[in-house]
Write a structure and sequence with these properties.
The protein is mainly alpha-helical. It has one domain. It is built from 2 helices and no strands. The protein is rod-shaped.
């Protein structure tokens, strides 16, 4: 027969598992997002340097290419920032839910 204590144990352990998975997943996902952003910006600045060497400083073509590359870097930054807000809110909700599940499991374990 299923009692509240057994349900409480299951809730408690599921809450701990959800908490651990959320923390590890958040770290891995955030690290991979930042490293991909850094790789993208470094490739943009490499192209920027190559264009400046070929076309020469101050030429209209160089200024146009630099403007395009700068807008790409700004767009990448805005995407990373918006992803960070959305991801941070989702991770916070999951953390709160896992703590609530742990507390509910402890409450059910204490009932007879």
């Amino acid at each position: 027969m299923v009692t509240k204590q057994k349900i409480g144990k299951v809730q408690f352990y599921l809450g701990i598992i959800l908490l651990i998975i959320t923390i590890i997943g958040s770290i891995v996902l955030f690290k991979s997002m930042l490293s991909s952003y850094v790789d993208g910006v470094s490739s943009e600045t490499t192209t920027w340097t190559d264009a400046s060497k070929i076309l020469g400083e101050g030429s209209p073509e160089n200024e146009m290419i630099v403007g395009i590359l700068l807008s790409d870097v700004i767009t990448q930054g805005l995407i990373v920032r918006s992803f960070g807000y959305i991801f941070g809110a989702s991770a916070l909700i999951l953390l709160i839910m896992s703590v609530m599940l742990i507390l509910q499991g402890l409450a059910n374990q204490s009932k007879r």
